[in-house]
Amino acid sequence: MDALTFLHIADLHLDSPFSGLTNLPTKVFKRVQESTFTSLSRLINIAIEQKVDFIIIAGDLFDGEDRSLRAQSRFRKEMERLREHGIEAFVTHGNHDHLSGNWPHFEWPSNVHVFQNENVEVIPYLKNGETVANIYGFSYAKKAVLENKTKFYEKKDGATYHIGILHGSKEGESSHSRYAPFLLSDLQKKGFDYWALGHIHTREILAEDPPIIYPGNIQGRHKKETGEKGGYLVKLSKAKTEYTFFPTSDLVWENTTIDISELTSFDQLVDKSLSHLESLRKETQGLFVTIEYIGTGPLLTQLQENPIKEDLLSLLNDDISEKNFVYVVGLKQNFQIQINRQKLKQDSHFFGDLLENMETYQDFDHALLPLRNNQSFRRHIDTFTNEELQEILHDAENLILRELYSSNRR
Amino acid sequence: MKIIGIQVYGYGKLENLELGELSPHLQVFFGQNEAGKSTLMSFIHSILFGFPTKQQNEQRYIPKAGAKYGGKLILQTDEYGTILIERLPGKATGEVSVFMPDGSVYGEEFISELFQGMDKNLFKNVYSFNIHGLQGVHNLKREDVGRFLFSAGTIGTDALLELQTKLVKEMDGLYKPKGKNPPLNMELIRLKEEHAKVTKWQEKNNEYESLLNEQQQLENELVSYDSKISSLKQKIQESEKLRSIQPIVEEYQTLQNRLQSLPVFEPYPEDGLNRLEQLQAQIKPYQAQLAAINGQILEWNKEKSEINFAKQYIVNEQRILELVENKNLFYEKENRFQQVTIELQEIEDELNQLIDRINFTLPEKDVLKLNLSITAKDMFSEVVSETARHRQQKHFLDNSFTQVKEALDNSEQKLRDLKQQVLPEEQRKRYEKKKSQYTSKENLESEKLLIEDEIKRIDQKMQRMTAKESENKQKYTRLFYGIGFTLLIISVYFYVTKDWIIGGILTILGALMWPVGKTVTSQMTSSFIHELQDDRERLMKKLEAINEQLTHSNYSDHEELSAILIRDKHLIQQIEIEKATHRQNERALDKVFKDFEEWEKTEYSLEEKATNIKKTYGLPLQISNERLLDVFQILEAIKEKALNKQKLSKAKVDLQNEISNFQSKIYTVAKQLNIEDRSSIKVDQIAIQLQVEKKKYEQLLQIDAKIKDSEEQILKLSLEIEHLQKEIQVLWDIAKVSNEEEYRAKGQANDTARELKERMNLLMAQLERFGKLVKICNIETDYEVLIEEMSAETTRLHAIEKERQGQLSAINHRIQELEEGGTYADLLHSYEASNSLVKNYAKNWATLSVAKDILTKTVDHYRTLRLPKVIKRAEHYFSILTDKKYKRIYLDNEVDGFLVENNKGVRYEPSELSQATSEQLYISLRFSLANTMHPSQSFPFIIDDSFVNFDSGRLSNVISLIKELSKENQVLLFTCHQHVLEGFGEAKPIILSNEGIIEYQKSML
């Protein structure tokens, strides 16, 4: 009977707005707003149904330093529900909802245990007066924690199970900035029964024995956070360890491709796109899909015109009234103009120069200056990332080559 | 490179076309419209760079008729020598093979190398010239001409110009740095607004804590006000209560005073006056009653004395009643007595009668002893029946005897008769034998019939056969006769012909025929018929024999014989039977005799029995036995009568006794009643008298009872009265008074006091509820005023409270709003959406901007570095074309354009030039570009009837230019105009015609 069941979730980012959505109808917009809460609610339902002993939330419960009141209020309600069913909650704060934030102070119900310190602490979990598990963790005091905190996780005797909560990234991961970096081997050496990680929004099982798991965030918010989102239900016993993923998100992001090689008319394109979208439709969840058109066909040039793209987009999103709607967020194509760059570049004529310039172009600042000069733009819009700049360059290339090179002109 | 050979397998309308030995410098193709010039041009491009695919918009020239498609081109290159490019249909753009002089074969990549990375479009843009490009000059606005030329001079088409225009337009369409309308601008404004809203709300969020504090404060205030108001309310309530009890208290005090002023009223019995009254009231009726009862008693006594009563009757009541009861019985008995006597006499008479009838001899006393039970009766009847039976038996036996005797005699007689009739033995035997003979006769008869039948049949058969035979015979006879006759006739013939021999033979033969025929036919009698005849004869013989046998016997005898024999048999049988019967009869007779003996014996015993009976029952012996039963009955009757007689006698005696008894009783009673006269004693009268006396007695008793009751009552009443009077005395004792006057007076005072006390108690009861209040109630105080004051205060406090409550609910509302945070979240999300949109637009705009930038840079670079070369060459060409009218071309530093300087040194912008001149400038630039683009390689120019509109002068200039160009680059010129063709003079044209392609050159393939 010394088994332990708990729910492991992280990166709730409650009330976080979605990005990349424009011109949503009100109903969908409302649903978007509610989506993080919906997912949380479902997770709490699962916790209650499965009669877990406690839940672990490994950081980034709220989206910013200024946590919305609504988010806190709703969170409190959910915790109340847990309390009514006698379920505890162990919470650490991450880089987004760190302790130095400016927020009105909410009192959480008595079943919520928050790690209040940047130093690693231990909070015991008691069942019938017995300490069944020791939970270890820390919260971010400020926006970032740059040091490796693994050494502070010391196993303390007196409990059957030892569970560590860590909001951070693996050492060496370049795509994410360093936050409380750790080495997998270090974690494994500690001899804990489970490591509840947080911070990375794509769920991943880093190891199985003991389980070291990123549950991912609970609701995708833009097109880079694709697939099902939810949390892990973990069952620890002396015999075995089980962990099951439960998808709970109300809205799902997906990327898909459609081949236009065989299509000859706009109608066909619309038809094919619609039927393809239909095949992606979920049962009850709403779907935000980004379509990439691949292949070369007669419609190639047409599709690169923005007005056409806009028309197509509005046609595809004509009817999004159902619960399981499919909303096309954006269209893109990745067409390469077939040219022999090497050869052309060798020659000293306009095209050669053009190609050379395109490849070596760096002068983004100059090109974007008029935009940057705009106060509002400067204030509110983040600068383009390198990735984005490269995309812009690529699109510009395609545009130029298409117009100058591929078209039949006189 | 130079194209020196073309071979078309199939392309459009061209089929199996071989064009060899194209001029490496200038090759003119002449053909009318529809001759296939465009087809050929397309062919060249397709072979080099690939067939147009289905997806592209170019015409594919797929042959309608034949199956073949594709072809070859022979190129002469500096680097590789003469190479052969063959392209056949295949995937997408086709399968290309490049055949090198050394035999190696290359593919698509080689072509790319060969053409310096150019593809079809680029190649065409630079090295193809047609009329459209030239006309393009015309279609431009003045101000665009310069830029158009610049574009043409840069990449060969107006694409550069177009693109630049488009970019600018689209960029402006999205965003203008100082603009408000373009989408991006608008969105930015919106973004700013939304951000402001969000910020505002964020501030609101910061209020949250202070709001919480305020809430707490207000709540506390409310609590205090609440309690104040409560206490005031309480006080008001108290005062109200005091006010209400004030009058009561006053009254109470008044009463108390009065009470104290009363005279002594204690002690006094409870409800004293009333009780006195009551008691007194009670006594009165009793007294009245007493008097009444006494009066009644007197009256009753008087009544009593008036009744005259005779006691004796009552005393003897029992006896009298008895008498009355039995009176009727007595009369009855007397009657009875009479009856019995009469009956007795009757019976006596009857009895005597009966005795006479049978001469009964026994004395009377013995009669009663006679056993006349059932068994006795049986005995009698037995005798009777036996006697009868016996007699019957005797008759029967007599009859039997007679019968048997008769029978016996009969049978003897019969026997004798029969014996006489029987045949003697030997006679019988003889007859029998005869009979057996006759039996065979019947067989013979039947056999005879059979034979006769058979004979008949044979006859028939024979008849048929003979008929047939005779037929045959006749046939043959005829035949023979015929033959004979014929022979004869023939012989006659022969005779006639004097063939005598033959005739003679024939005659002979013919004559012979007759006997022959006859013999033959006669011998034809079939053997079969013979057989039949034999059979017939046989049978006839048999028949005869049978008939003989039959006639020997006599038919009628036979019958008689049989009858006799039969009869005899019967007789014999009968004799036997009769003998048996006879024996039986003898036996029967014996039996009869035996029975007789038996009968005698029983007859004797029976006689004895009867005699006994008679003696026992005192009967005379003469009585016949048959009549015994009757006698028995009479005996029974006698006995019965005797018994009756006895009974009746007894009854008579009894009755007598009873009657005398009763009479004595009556006398006794009469004596008691002092009735002397015995004769007139009537029981009824006595009874009546008895009733009367009885009634009187009852009356007396009643009166006595009433008197007793009344005396009891008197006693009771006296006691009651005494009792009541004692009670009254008690009251006086309690009240400590001695007479009624005092008593009453005290009573009055007591009542008053009581009333007062009662009232006071009531008041006290009312006041009790208020408990302590009563003590503090001051009669003097004006509570009304007090209450008013306090109410006013309450109202005031209420008002303040309400205000505070309003404030609290407002704050609660705001807190809730913040917590729900719907608006804030909406704004945030909306802001984010706006942000995304802006980003989108920005990205699009950025793409355009970057493209523009790149272009600009490249153009600048080109203009600085490369364009001068182009211009230099163009100058030269321009000069040629304009007959040296224009000498210089300069770059325009302001815009992307040129300036031309004529021979007089005047500079013009392209917009200022005439169209013709613009055209010439265009041509110059194009040619120049084509020439300078690839300095190391020279590619063939393909010119398609571009100069149709030129006048002869211009035309010749162009032609000379082309001729000059052709020195370095191969020029392939297609035209349908004769004069153009002629302009080129020496060059040997290839003539394409509709009918077929006329080969002018041998192929070098």
Compact summary:
The complex is a heterodimer of chains A (410) and B (1005). Chain A is an alpha/beta fold and 410 residues long.
Assess the beta-strand content of chain A as a share of residues: 15-25%
**Series of H and E elements of chain A:** EHEHEEEEEHEEEEEEHEHHEHHHHH
Order of strands across the main sheet of chain B: 2-1-4-5-6-7
Total strand segments of chain A: 15
Helix content of chain A: 25-40%
Q: What is the averaged pLDDT score of chain A?
A: 85
| Class based on secondary structure composition and strand pairing of chain B | alpha/beta
| Biggest interface between chains | A-B, 80 and 84 residues
The unreliable regions of chain A are none
Main sheet of chain B, how many strands, which sense, barrel?
A: 6 strands, antiparallel
Structure, explained:
The complex is a heterodimer of chains A (410) and B (1005). Chain A has 410 residues and is α/β, with parallel strands linked by helices. Chain A is built from 11 helices and 15 strands. A 6-stranded mixed beta sheet of chain A has the order 4-3-2-1-11-12, covered by helices on one side. A 6-stranded mixed beta sheet of chain A has the order 5-6-7-8-10-9. A 3-stranded parallel beta sheet of chain A has the order 13-14-15. In chain A, a hairpin with a 4-residue loop joins strand 11 and strand 12. The relative contact order of chain A is 0.10. The mean pLDDT of chain A is 85. Chain B has 1005 residues and is of the alpha/beta class. In chain B, the strands form 3 sheets. In chain B, strands 2-1-4-5-6-7 form a 6-stranded antiparallel beta sheet. A 5-stranded parallel beta sheet of chain B has the order 8-12-13-3-14. A 3-stranded antiparallel beta sheet of chain B has the order 9-10-11. At the A-B interface, helix 1, helix 2, helix 7, helix 8 and helix 9 of A face helix 3, helix 4, helix 6, helix 7 and helix 21 of B.
